[in-house]
Write a structure and sequence with these properties.
single chain, two-stranded antiparallel sheet, DJ-1/PfpI, Class_I_gatase-like, Rossmann fold, about 20% strand, globular, DJ-1/PfpI domain-containing protein, INH-QAR, 9 helices, about 220 residues, alpha/beta, 2 domains
Length: about 220
């Protein structure tokens, strides 16, 4: 491909910053790509804590047929699943994309658009029921590939997904170079980063923490 590969990352109020920034840090370093943050209109959009904002430099209408879609998640996805304009754009963009991907609850948007009907997919572990209600088959995996559709689990999984996507778009050597470039060599201080490792008590306490976080965010909104 002589022209730059067009990659778009939709942003919106209430997104989780790392869902977008993690893949961005990998994918914008690929050779011969043109990466854009897009939304309904250009401008600033606040993340789920309203402290950090990201800027969309283009609108969905400016990019009707991107090569790659990376849809991030966050609490803001819950209102977007009823947004006809974004769902119509997703269906159109997906029809010609090379890859359509999501991070965390970004997969809820893919499901709401009908892209995941009957397909295995993943999302944040606390949103499996929502994903299933929207027609997908949730599976507890960090990355799930279904043809040209790739879904990633919660938040940090977006970096892993982006590295796998880099290998698919270019080659494994390039993906390895990018992984070393960003020095991605995770060694978390606690080995509780999945529901399989965390145990029921910590899962319950985390669910309660999430509920309180949602409640505080709704007051801000």
């Amino acid at each position: 491909m002589d022209r730059p590969l067009v990659i778009v990352i939709p942003i919106f109020n209430g997104l989780t910053a790392l869902d977008a920034i993690g893949p961005y840090e990998v994918l914008h370093r690929l050779p011969n790509v043109s990466l854009h943050f897009v939304s309904h209109q250009p401008g600033l959009y606040s993340t789920d804590k309203s402290i950090l904002s990201l800027q969309a430099t283009g609108s969905f209408l400016d990019f009707p047929h991107p090569d790659v879609i990376v849809f991030p998640g966050g609490f803001g996805t819950r209102s977007l699943i009823h947004d006809r304009s974004i769902l119509d754009w997703l269906r159109q963009a997906h029809s010609t994309s090379i890859f359509t991907t999501s991070v965390c609850t970004g997969s809820l948007l893919l499901a709401a658009a009908g892209i995941l009907n009957g397909l295995e997919a993943t999302t944040h572990w606390n949103a499996f029921n929502e994903l299933e209600r929207l027609g997908a088959k949730p599976v507890s995996q960090r990355i799930v590939k279904q043809g040209k559709i790739i879904t990633a689990a919660g938040v940090s999984a977006g970096i892993d997904m982006a590295l796998e996507l880099a290998a698919l778009l270019r080659d494994e050597e390039t993906a390895k170079i990018l992984q070393l470039y960003i020095e991605y060599d995770p060694k978390p201080p606690y080995d509780v980063g999945s529901t399989e490792k965390a145990g029921e008590e910590l899962i319950d306490r985390t669910r309660e923490f999430i509920k309180k976080t949602k409640a505080s965010l709704s007051k801000i909104e």
